Amino acid sequence: MGTVTYRHSVNFPLPEVWDWHTRPGAVVRLTPTHSRMKLVEQADNLRDGTTVFALPGKLTWRADHQPQDYVPNEQFGDLCTTTGLKQLTGWHHLHHFAAEGNATTVTDTLTTRAPGGLAAHLLAGMFNYRHNQLHADLTHLRHAAQWSAHRAPRTVAVTGADGLVGTQLCALLTTAGHTVIKLSRSARSTTGTRRKWDPHNPAPNLLEGVDSVIHLAGEPIAGRFTDKHVRAVRDSRVEPTRLLAELAARTKGIDTFVCSSAVGLYGNSRSQPADETAPTGGGDIAQIVEDWEAATEPARAAGLRVSNIRSGLVLAGGSPLLSLLRANVLLGGGRLGPGTQHFPWIGVDDAADIYHRALLDPKLSGPINAVAPQTVTNAEFTEILADVGGGWPTIPIPAAAPALVFGQRGAQELALADQNVVPAALQAMEHPFRHPDLASALRHELCKE
């Protein structure tokens, strides 16, 4: 058996750090998206609860917290108990916390069947990720307390809660103390914390007891741009948004409606910087997004504060987008087409932060460009990705190649789109981005720090 110890300090007092770890969502926030581990069940307490992850290859990782390891405000431990994996890994993880003035030292001690040196090498990236994530999340929650006009935590209904951004956002919200109600087409009841949502006929009582709505759901925009695909993208956004906004307007107690949107509103050929005042551009996506945002008007007309979060391309380790882009670079692929087209990106944690701020901050309303401050072209993105994640981007990808996957319309709307978008509204408010530059975001998401 080998033992590995990782130790780091965060500039927050022990009670604050310990309390954060006890909240629902903490385990999701500490699990690298790059790991491809999907939370199935989270421990309801640190003394003897159980956390279960789904792993690639239909494997399951079950971690049982050990009562003998538990000391309140000091330590807790978990043991892998999945048959097969338990014998193979011998995994035991002890989390220890110690006050150092106004800071806290967090020590992770791992016992595994792997030799200590090998385990230390394999797991260093993951624990650096956890360290950076913990510090950044606690920092964000300090900011959030200053932004909020509400003293009490919110009860938030979220559509698209199991998607890329939704998973991280819901975890962030629960670690902040909010109650999350997930609206899902697969749920069985219209009550409780997971409610059945019919996008085209929402139940009248769907939003009862809710303070705020965050609407993320919609068919993926990426795909082959046939008339059928474009219609599916439109039908999953415009009418469902209008119906949900109308229901929010009718439901007593709701004061905030935050709706996802996209920088596609500015069109597929916008080389000059576009802030939130820029007009709608050309193309299928631009028209869909314009109608999508207009569908939130019933909530605004009823006096709710409405924010339309015009998101850029979200970067997360293990996501289809970043995995595809990285595979291209690792195989020697370079810039796409001319490479001069702007690539409007945002790290997944910054995207979650922006939605959280839109939930809380009364000054944040109307259109908000959720993109990072650093503007890069496709060629620049490719070079930075290779520098951080490895690869030899030496062979340019011809502009005709994306048409084989997305069709000619899709290639122009997606892979070859030129969208120079700037986060003017957020910058005017001096919003603190976790990853204002691309290299920082990629190092974190790929566990390269």
UniProtKB/TrEMBL annotation:
Domain NAD-dependent epimerase/dehydratase: 156-363
Superkingdom, taxonomy of origin: Bacteria
InterPro entries per UniProt: DUF1731, Epimerase_deHydtase, NAD(P)-bd_dom_sf, SDR39U1, START-like_dom_sf
Membership in a protein family: Belongs to the NAD(P)-dependent epimerase/dehydratase family. SDR39U1 subfamily.
Domain DUF1731: 397-444
Phylogenetic placement of the source organism: Bacteria, Bacillati, Actinomycetota, Actinomycetes, Mycobacteriales
Protein name as annotated: TIGR01777 family protein
NCBIfam families given in the database record: yfcH (TIGR01777)
